[in-house]
Amino acid sequence: MHRNRRGRKPLFLLVMIEKIKILELVNQALEGTDKFLVNLKVTPDNRIYVDIDGDNGITVDDCIELSRAIESQLDRDVEDFALDVSSAGADQPLKLTRQLVKNIGRDVEVLALDGEKTEGTLTAADEERLTLHVPAKGKKNPAHDVEMARRDVKSVRVVIKF
Length: 162
Hints:
Layout: H1 19-30, E1 35-42, E2 47-54, H2 60-71, E3 82-87, H3 97-102, E4 107-112, E5 117-125, E6 129-134, E7 144-149, E8 153-158
Parallel strand pairs: 2-3
Antiparallel strand pairs: 1-2, 4-5, 4-8, 5-6, 6-7
């Protein structure tokens, strides 16, 4: 038992959950599926945030299943925690190449590091580059393709149209 400098037992000993442990649990649970981890955050007060995506989308049941898989491997008597498993939101930037590839054919907005925004249809994406087809905007701006180095891109977001 841990004791403080005066030899007394502490009233409360916070056991912080290690991010690597959660990462291993998530990877284990998603292995062999079309689902993948987009973002993982573990705060000092043991709030765990897991964002996932899938090649064919994510359902509420997918989030519940992953949440149960993680919780079943943690002991709340040892590690007091709060767990939030959700799908990567449609309004969130696409972070991974796998997300970009999944969204080929959709309209996106790309924000370059220099602040320039380009909107068009995502036609290709890999680890190094992405390509957009930008529609014509009048006679002076015909339709064209724009290729960008990923290292020059700050964010890519799907354009949601109603």
